[in-house]
Design brief:
The chain is α+β, with helices and mostly antiparallel strands. 50% of the residues lie in helices and 17% in strands. The chain is elongated, with a radius of gyration of 32 Å.
């Protein structure tokens, strides 16, 4: 991408009277060290209030109080070896896909080259190189060089480019010693081959590249899966609005141009563009994705409606009270972005362990070279030993320690019906010690069902089902589904926000709210039996009946909650639904600690409170209003029936209809974290043993590459054990 004009004032978003926000995509961020460097150096600049890096999507979020600060930020990032430009989710996704293809191609090239060079090496060494005809040996070496040099030039570019950027910025990252070892080994191998000496290390270099690229591809794949897909919120955001003009006409205008106080026309099937109050009209509003409320809400003049909610039946005129970035939908998006930054700041164990690698390895390799030179060894031999140190300490095992376990554990969970949606999710899930449930669609089934179907006479059921087919109300759809109706009544008329009427065989039939049908008394009695249910009444002539519709509790919810509590973890429910509905479900699953009527900010605040209390909360939810909470939690799980934005934010997705899959996730996560720790300790122990051997000259670059490969193989074999769950007790 080309460097943009440093004047970025057009991309600044006001967040307060004197401050603005700017999101920048930053190329070249590789690890937690890069993140810390950027936050520290950029945060020192004049005009920068705060600088936060999201390691997951390589995004820098700036808060500035000076419109000239972004230009200074771009220059400072350039000095540090990073390129930045205004962040665009779509452009960033495209760039990530390009990088994934680039790494995959480099991996394939390195793998094919490694196999061919190893075959040549076996041909040389199987005949004892000291006894082999020098011309034949040199021929094999030159063929290896013809394969290795272009392979290194192509497959090594991800490491070379990163190292060059770091050196230009006078920094050292993990790719610097890797690139140095590769270049020195290739150079020495060419010199040795040109001088007709026995040893060349082309095989070790290409094998090293191949193994390094395996880790890099796995890492990139995990990062792509954990991208914050905030753009999905656009599916709920109306792009245009019908705005009333002075002459009484209605004109389609972009939502961004609509001011507070404007009057909007919202037709059935349209999403409400902005927050406001209903002036005229009545309609049923589906606001489940925004507020978490179970049942559609009937609105009339004076009621408040929110951007992103769906008008289902009648036409409304709405006065705009909150526009642009002040709507509830914008609040959800902002909370989601803030929580994602907190999660992105999480540093994996492998990143922390690898942070000290470059300075230590450079020092040891240089000391080895100088020490052997002072001991009287030829410079080529001393250099070969130093290269061996660089290669044998290459952090392949360290780099594979975490991602291999993640891949194996993710595969095991997939077989059980769970998708892992974040790179470090397993490690975080293994640490949870407090569980927070949403209610709607999580502890309950996602679709409503009739609780008292057997109490309604069959002929009444059949007529109600046919009436329900003539309505667009979701509760009507549940009645039609439960009664098995397939043929709607002719000439049925729907009254928005009330119900449906028709005439069947000369008899007037009604379906709708108890007040509309005239069955309030009957519905009141039934409400005592089903306090959380929504009531839909039906009348056939003088005969009436009332359906109690509610979302039933999942069959395994109580057992799942009991297992979590048996592990010693507190369990609570925080829901946006009404108190009667939450209380009933809490009693059914035996949870005493519950909160009703919680808005998105309330859920985030509760999780932040738990975090400040040194807890590691797990959030399980499914609605759009749960997305910020899922991002703010230490780990998060959502059913596959969840809203798209919620799915994108959750660490784990339950594909099946069993809530007990969350237990499987926790058990495998605990096993995975144990194996990650074992792999990291093994990597450290390997270096403690291998480095002295290399420093003392008891290994060659090829042996170093093989030893490094062996350590990587052990790490990968150990990772296969992640398929076995670990009990949570």
């Amino acid at each position: 991408m080309t460097t943009l004009n440093p004047d970025l004032t057009g991309f600044l978003v006001p967040v307060a009277e004197t401050t603005s926000r700017l999101d920048l995509a930053v190329e070249g961020i590789r690890c937690a060290g890069c993140m810390a460097t950027i936050e520290r150096e950029v945060g020192r600049l004049d005009g920068v209030v705060s600088a936060r890096v999201n390691l997951t999507d390589k995004r820098l979020r700036l808060t500035v109080n000076d419109t000239t600060a972004p230009a200074r930020v771009l220059q400072r990032l350039e000095d540090l070896g990073f390129r930045a430009y205004p962040f665009s989710p779509r452009a960033h996704t495209d760039q990530s896909a390009i990088e994934q293809r680039r790494l995959t191609r480099a991996l394939v090239v390195a793998g094919v080259a490694a196999m061919n060079i190893m075959l040549l090496s076996v041909s040389v060494w199987s005949g004892h190189a000291s006894e082999l005809d020098p011309l034949a040996r040199d021929f094999f070496h030159w063929i290896s060089a013809l394969i290795a040099l272009p392979t290194a030039a192509y497959s090594g570019r991800p490491f070379f480019d990163s190292a060059i950027r770091a050196l230009k910025a006078r920094r050292v990252n993990m790719d610097v010693p890797i690139s140095l070892g590769i270049c020195l080994a290739l150079g020495l191998s060419v010199f040795e081959t040109w001088s007709s000496h026995e040893h060349a290390y082309f095989d070790g270099v290409v094998m090293l590249l191949f193994l390094l690229l395996i880790g890099r591809v796995l890492e990139q794949a995990m990062h792509r899966r954990t991208r914050a897909v905030a753009a999905n919120l656009a599916a709920l955001r109306a792009e245009h609005a019908s705005v009333a003009q002075a002459d009484g006409s209605w004109v389609e205008c972009p939502v961004d141009t609509v001011a507070v106080g404007a009057r909007l026309l919202v037709r059935p099937g349209e999403r409400i563009p902005l927050d406001g109050a209903v002036l005229t009209g009545r309609s049923d509003i589906d606001q489940s994705l925004v507020t978490g409320e179970t049942a559609p809400r009937a609105v009339s003049p004076g009621d408040t409606v929110y951007a992103g909610t769906l008008a289902m039946s009648g036409t409304l005129t709405v006065r705009v009270d909150r526009a642009h970035d002040r709507t509830l939908l914008a609040d959800v998006e902002r909370l989601l972005a803030q929580a994602s930054e907190t999660k992105g700041a999480y540093v994996t164990l492998a990143d922390r362990a690898a942070r000290l690698y470059p300075p230590i390895v450079h020092t040891v390799a240089l000391a080895t070279f100088l020490g052997w030179m002072l001991a009287g060894l030829a410079w080529t031999e001393a250099l070969a030993i130093a290269i061996t140190v660089l290669i044998i300490t290459c952090p392949c095992a360290l780099g594979l320690a975490v991602p291999t376990v993640q891949i194996v554990a993710a595969g095991a969970l997939f077989k059980r019906g769970v998708l892992v949606n974040a790179g470090d999710a397993l490690e975080r899930l293994a640490m949870i010690d407090h569980v927070v449930f949403d209610k709607t669609g999580t502890l309950t089934e996602p679709t409503p069902a009739i609780a008292n179907l057997a109490a309604v006479p069959p002929h009444i059921q059949a007529i109600a089902g046919r009436l329900a087919l003539a309505s667009r109300h979701p509760l009507a759809a549940a009645i039609a589904r439960a009664t098995g109706a397939t043929l709607p009544l002719d000439d049925a008329t729907e009254t928005p926000g009330a119900g449906v009427t028709a005439v069947l065989d000369g008899v007037e039939v009604w379906l709708g709210s108890p007040a509309f049908v005239g069955a309030d008394a009957q519905a009141c009695v039934l409400a005592h039996q089903y306090p959380s249910a929504s009531m839909v009444a039906v009348r056939v002539g003088t005969e009436t009946a009332v359906f109690a519709l509610r979302q039933p509790v999942r069959t395994d919810a109580r057992a799942t909650v009991a297992a979590l509590r048996a592990a010693g973890w507190p369990v609570e429910i925080v829901s946006g639904d009404r108190a009667t509905a939450v209380a009933e479900v809490a009693a059914a699953v035996q949870v005493q600690d519950w909160t009703a009527g919680a808005r998105p900010a309330d859920k985030v605040a509760r999780l932040h409170a738990l975090t400040q209390a040194k807890r590691h909360p797990l959030m399980i939810g499914d609605g759009l209003n749960d997305a910020p909470a899922l991002a703010a939690a230490h780990a998060s799980i959502a059913p596959v029936s969840a809203a798209h934005v919620t799915q994108a934010q959750a660490d784990f997705l339950l594909l099946g209809n069993r809530l007990s899959l969350s237990l499987d996730s926790i058990q495998i996560a605990r096993r995975a974290r144990t194996l990650m720790m074992q792999n990291l300790w093994f990597s450290a122990l390997y270096n403690l043993v291998a480095v002295p051997i290399a420093v003392l000259g008891h290994a060659t670059p090829l042996v170093a590459a093989l030893a490094m490969s062996g350590s990587s193989l052990i790490v990968m074999l150990n990772a296969l054990r992640a398929q076995t769950p670990q009990e949570i007790r």
